[in-house]
């Protein structure tokens, strides 16, 4: 017998373990006629187009000599190709991290029949990115010196933005620094916002450098004729789409996802726009940006009625599964781009939370669609385990009273509502090691994917050790400080009619609709 290795993706591992071959329906990037395997584990992993956290290595014990007619390639350094393997050859599955193991276990409706071994050392190290770094010092200000990293090899870096100024500064820096492409999705586009951010000049300069610029806004928002002419002059692809997402992606080195509407009109009634966005830089952006575009194209196919392309994409096994990316053996990033995935995520956090769940949702549905996810059994079961659940909502939302009455009827001291001045972020914090930011309004988003109000929504979740500094950043924000203050015994408000006055700790609002 001889040891070989096969690298499989999430959508194929189930069929490989059960039947020894690829599934009948599989994505185009998988060759359904050949299973590539090698006696050299480095060669094996290089044959996979997946990232480490989405690559499962099957360890095979095969006969020393296989039927040569069935094999293509020779020697340990060349991968063999075979149409099928025997399932009894598979001895174990090697995964990169605990997050990878959990992802694999979810694929099996029953217990996985094989041992699952966590061994990051079996995965070849990724070579340092040889491309120029995204951040370059083009302005030698003290502010830039604090934000710009040094010239070490490109690595995955995570940070969080909360103020309007932080978002606008990063937006301007992105246009100054982009070398190849910029993707922006925003609710609306306003000429005054472009002027304030100096984007008229920055877009023209990026065009001269050969940067491709893609901008999508919600299909309900008209684009000014003068803006259309300006975008046309500088070859900016600007279009309306079924989207409510707020994405900034630059080259393959920066991704920002959150609640900030990058180009929308700033309502003067709300001088302070409280938003939250997560920033990813480094290796993870290569695969993350590719996935961003996949789901943008998917919703574009919906928009134009390309049923064939929609159905083809939905046949992929990972269409409804959260896209998971390991950033080290202890932390992971998850990209959540569909309604089904957002609802699955809500179910998941209420099942596994151990201490606290914070749900920031400024808007509440007038039709109580949130009841589909925040059901009494789910909330009560979670609270009974001792988990504290805090809903942070806008105190001026017209449906707040109804939601307060709904929570009051649950009769649990572990379920609370914190009503504060208007804000716009849609943040979830779970225990002390998980944070999620995005565009999905947890208490008001449309739950019917066939509704005309259903749009492309995106959320980014950070879990593990790397989430803790981001949670600290959230705790230091205005909303985070209000949460901390409300937890102190002397600030418990209960049903005090003056509670709303105590909660009015800051002025603010949001710059666009949900």
Task: Walk me through the topology.
Blueprint: E1 2-8, H1 10-19, E2 35-38, H2 41-46, E3 56-62, E4 80-82, E5 90-95, H3 98-107, E6 116-118, H4 142-147, E7 157-161, H5 164-177, E8 181-186, H6 191-196, H7 199-208, E9 212-218, H8 225-233, E10 237-241, E11 247-250, E12 254-258, E13 277-281, H9 284-304, H10 307-314, E14 323-328, E15 331-336, H11 339-352, E16 356-360, H12 376-384, E17 388-394, H13 400-410, E18 415-420, E19 428-430, E20 434-438, E21 459-464, H14 468-476, H15 478-487, H16 499-503
Parallel strand pairs: 5-6, 8-9, 9-10, 16-17, 17-18
Antiparallel strand pairs: 1-2, 1-3, 2-4, 3-5, 7-13, 8-11, 11-12, 12-13, 14-15, 15-21, 16-19, 19-20, 20-21
């Amino acid at each position: 017998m001889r040891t070989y290795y096969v690298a499989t993706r999430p959508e194929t591992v189930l069929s490989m373990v059960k039947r020894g071959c690829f599934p009948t329906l599989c994505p185009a990037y998988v060759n359904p006629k050949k299973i590539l395997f090698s006696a050299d584990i480095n060669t094996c992993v290089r044959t996979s187009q997946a990232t480490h956290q989405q690559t499962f290595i099957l360890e095979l014990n095969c006969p020393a000599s296989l039927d040569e007619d069935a094999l293509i390639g020779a020697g340990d350094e060349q991968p063999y190709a075979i149409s099928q393997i025997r399932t009894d050859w598979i001895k174990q599955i090697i995964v990169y991290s605990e997050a990878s193991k959990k992802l694999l276990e979810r694929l099996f409706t029953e217990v996985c029949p094989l041992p699952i071994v966590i061994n990051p050392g079996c995965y070849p190290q990724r070579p340092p990115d040889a491309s120029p770094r995204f951040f370059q010092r083009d302005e030698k200000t003290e502010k830039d010196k604090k934000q710009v990293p040094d010239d070490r090899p490109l690595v995955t870096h995570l940070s969080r933005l909360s103020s309007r100024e932080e978002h606008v500064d990063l937006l301007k820096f992105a246009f100054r620094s982009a070398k190849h492409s910029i993707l922006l999705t925003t609710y609306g586009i306003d000429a005054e916002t472009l002027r304030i951010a100096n984007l008229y000049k920055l877009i023209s300069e990026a065009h001269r450098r050969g940067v491709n610029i893609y901008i999508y806004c919600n299909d309900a928002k008209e684009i000014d004729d003068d803006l259309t002419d300006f975008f046309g002059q500088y070859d900016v692809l600007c279009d309306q789409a079924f989207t409510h997402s707020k994405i900034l992606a630059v080259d393959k080195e920066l991704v920002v996802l959150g609640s900030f509407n990058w180009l929308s009109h700033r309502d003067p009634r709300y001088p302070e726009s409280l938003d939250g966005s997560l920033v990813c830089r480094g290796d993870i952006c290569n695969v993350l940006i590719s996935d961003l575009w996949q789901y943008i194209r998917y919703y574009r196919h919906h928009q134009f009625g390309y049923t064939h392309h929609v159905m083809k994409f939905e046949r992929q096994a990972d269409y409804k599964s959260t896209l998971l990316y390991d950033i080290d053996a202890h932390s992971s990033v998850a990209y959540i781009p569909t309604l089904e995935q957002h609802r699955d995520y809500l179910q998941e956090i209420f099942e596994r939370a151990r201490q606290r769940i914070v749900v920031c949702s400024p808007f509440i549905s007038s039709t109580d669609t949130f009841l589909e996810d925040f059901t009494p059994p789910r909330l009560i079961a979670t609270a009974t385990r001792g988990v504290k659940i805090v809903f942070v909502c806008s105190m001026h939302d017209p449906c707040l009273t109804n939601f307060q009455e709904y929570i009051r009827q649950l009769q649990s001291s572990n379920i609370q509502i914190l009503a504060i001045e208007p804000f716009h972020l849609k943040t979830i914090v779970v225990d002390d090691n998980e944070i999620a930011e995005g565009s999905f309004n947890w208490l008001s988003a449309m739950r019917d994917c066939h509704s005309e109000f259903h749009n492309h929504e995106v959320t980014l979740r950070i879990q593990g050790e790397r989430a803790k500094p981001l949670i600290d950043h959230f705790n230091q924000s205005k909303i985070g400080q209000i949460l901390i203050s409300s937890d102190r015994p002397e600030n418990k408000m209960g049903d005090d009619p003056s509670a709303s006055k105590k909660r009015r700790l800051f002025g603010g609002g949001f710059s666009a609709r949900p």
